[in-house]
What we know:
Blueprint lengths: L4 E8 L2 E2 L12 H5 L4 E5 L4 E5 L2 H13 L5 E4 L4 E5 L9 E5 L5 E6 L4 E6 L2 E2 L2 E2 L3 H10 L13 H8 L17 H16 L2 H15 L3 H30 L4 H48 L9 H7 E6 L5 E5 L6
Antiparallel strand pairs: 1-2, 1-3, 3-9, 4-6, 4-8, 5-6, 5-11, 7-8, 9-10, 12-13
Amino acid sequence: MIEPFRGYVRTENKRPCQKFGGGEKLLTPDQASGCYEYAGVLNGEFTVKDMDDAAEAEKLHRLVVDKDINCRVMKTTRGMQFFFKSSRWVRKNLTHEIDALGLEFDTSTGRNAYCVLKFGGKQRDISDMTFSAIAKRLTDDGVPTPANKKVWQPAVVQSILTNEKYKGGFKCGTPHVTEDEVKEAFLAAFNKLLDSRDELIENCRIAQGILCDTAAIDTELDELRREIEVVVELSRKAINENARVAQDQEAWTKRNNGYLERHRIASERVGELEDLKQERSTKKLTLDAFICELESRQLAVDEFDERLFAVAVDIVKVRGDGQLAFRFKDGTEI
């Protein structure tokens, strides 16, 4: 895929520290990688859809995977950014817009737009391909699946890429099971789960209230953001004062470095809390989908459904005797 950036700029608290809209020389990837924070300047051929709500971003990500939409995806501290290879339909940057799916988003486009790629010392990785795109590539190249089938499914690719056994240096002693055996065992396990459907739904809702609550996180985030605002203002005043009035430079540097350290500590903590909040929001979305599937299944399931499998199952374990154990999204194991 074409590189979406024409260069890079150093940033501080997500704001550029250098000009880049008038043909100025930009940083190379090697130069940018050494910065504590930096951003990529778009090359004018991409539109970036930025979604700060983790749950809504996950909905769009699922659509991208399911529909095999060719785009790059970058996880941010709060949500995700989607890089689409087209600028024809978006002529200017937008904020707080609502799309046809009812999802709120911002967009960046044009040669003067930028995306933060490293923040708080943490690099943000951009994935080039979805599991669906990888599955399509393997199918098109004629590579057989582990079950010796011609068509790859996204769930199979995901299981391989997240399985330690495929990373090398691991001798697998797990008994071999076929795809049909997994499907048959899943139907038996899921139907057993339906026997206590109402109780399970109630337990899921209780778990949501405990595991997905973000009130305390939001309170601490508000306090940290106020701290960052205070420190930024103190540092700004110190810089202006140093420019106007002669200062003891050693004392001034020590004082300003203290402000920068407070800013760093608060920013890193904000990143940690936003990651935790996103995890809890994603967990809530996962449980919502699981509850919805349970509520819609009044009768036993007699035919394998790949979407149901993806929504319901967290992990499949193969025991030493070849028996399969399914851990569902609510934590129940059968």
